[in-house]
Structures are given as C-alpha cells and as structure tokens.
Amino acid sequence: MSFRNLRRYAATGLFGAVLAGAGLFAGQASADTYKWITSKPQGANDAQAISTQWFVDEFKRRTGGKHEIQVFWGGSVAKTREIPDALSAGAGDFGDIITPYFQDKFPLNNAVGFFIPQPNSTIEIALMMQKWHRVYPQFDAELAKHNLKAVGFRPLESYGLLCREPVKSLDDLKGKRIRTYGFAYPKIVEAMGATPVSIATSEAYEALQRGILDCTPIGPALARGWKYDEVAKYFVEFPFGASFGHLVAMNRKSYDAMPDDVKAVVEGLGREYAMRYAVDLEIQIAEVLRGWKDSGVTVMEFPVDKAAALVGNPGVQEIRKTWIEKANAAGLPGEEIAAELKF
Questions:
Q1: Residue numbers in the chain where pLDDT is lower than 50
Q2: CATH assignment of 159-242+291-334, among 3.30.70.1340, 1.10.3210.10, 3.90.420.10, 3.40.190.170
Q3: Confidence (pTM)
C-alpha cells in the first residue's frame, strides 16, 4: 500500500485500522521487525542500495537475531518525495530522505546545497554532518519538528559536468544549457555564462539525447546508473565537490521506543555507515571509469582555480549569505560552519 493510499484512508477515519492490519505502524514496541522505506529498487547494484543492505544485515547480526529490519523497496510504501511525511507519520521506522528535494523544509541539514562549488569529498561531507549533529543541537531539532531523527549520512559523490561536447574552459560553457536544481546550481551556472534549465532527473536522459540539455552536473556512478553516459560522452572534472545527498532517518517515536541496547546498535551502525558507504561508492566509481575507457566516454580536466573564481559572483554569494542568515537565526555560528565549505 502506498503512502498516497494511506492518506486517503486517514481522511475516512480508517487510518489506524488499516495501518494496524497492514503491520505498518512504526514504533510497535512488541514487534521485533522494523520497517525501512526507500525508493531504491531491490537488487540495485549501487552504493546506496548495497550500503542499505549492509546496515540491515549488520543490525540483525549485532542484535543477535532478536531484531531485524525489513526493507520495502522501490517506493512500495512511499515515493521519493513522499518519504519524509510518510516516515514522520509512522508508515516506516527507517527511511532514505533525499534532502536536496526538501531544501525549504530542512534548510540547516541542506547546508552543503547552498555552497556549491565546495572543496570537500563524500567522506569529508559525511564526517562534517556527523560533527554538526553532535556539536549543534539545532540540526537535530530541525528534524525533530517533523518527528524524525538522523541515524546516518549519505552524501553524493563529487560532481563534475557530463556534456555532449568537449569543455576545456569557461569560454566553452558560455551559452550552454545546463541542468540545475536547488538554490546554488542555478547561480553558479549563470556565473559560467550558461543557461540554467530545470529538468527532472528522470527526464534528463532524453533532454541530453535531443539536445535540450548540453550538460548536467553529476558524478560518474550516477551518470552510469541513469545511463546518461550513453548520450553524453564528455565528463568534465569541474570541481563542484560532493553534495549532501541522503539522510538515513528514523521515525523519532520508533527510535525513542527502542530498548537502550538496540539504540546503541543503531548509533554504532550510523557512525560506521558513512565510511562503509563511501568505500562502496569509490569502488563503483572506479568501475565506471574503467568502463568508460571502453565505451568512449572522455574524462576531461578543468582548472580548479577558474572554477573557484566563480564563487565570487554576486548571485553565488547571495545564496551563501541566505544560508548563513538562516543558521544565525537558528542560533548557529553560520560563518564558522560555512568556512568549512569554502575554497
């Protein structure tokens, strides 16, 4: 049953009965099986799905088989953009939240999305997020407002530009149509002299194929996963840095209801998760780069100093200032945190 249908039952007053009958109520203390809701398809051979399965397997092993997690793959309970509300409402205990889709809802936890380009790698961003949640209670409080708790962090890989034509300098980008999303990407693309185009991830393949897009920001693993590299054959190592991608989150009531020893297992897995995921991701990226040599994708360098100079653009600076102001308003040292995200 999808989250959409659950909401329909809620409107008729049958929500509790349906959830109880379906076994979907999160936080059932008597249950030994927790539910993980995700839009990832079962059997997907990527770092996100592989590390999810690792977490699930380790949870069962470390609790001595007394507790386990059942994964509801492929958006079977909630689609990508429904997951935060579904998880908050109790349609699952664990779930993946793609935070860049919810920058207005989780602005603090989307800090990295306001600072593109930035110089940090996947694991560096993951460790930053862990530190910020440990040191600054405002990050956790933002999630708590929605009955959510972060238990792991899954940044995206370092992005470059996948293009239909070679790009060696900023002059080559002028007038190009480049896919953007969120707050920072449109401004950095404008600073390049290019045109930002808002197109959904699922529609970008056809847009590249038909020439509606000239380039899209993406990393090698995701480019292969979405098969964009079939229609765009030049990967430009433009130093966007790693974006923050996914929270591995829990329904907060489910977490609070866990016995202390089970909480300790979850917290331990959460600390280890970032490294496990980052290693899986690097393995996958290396495999993609080897495959590109045979499939005709050319990897092109781009001067870091030329890219970093774009950060001084007034539009880019305004987006960064926006996040710092939000952070300061929440009682955070906005400038101090932002310093970690600057070239």
A1: 1-31
A2: 3.40.190.170
A3: 0.86
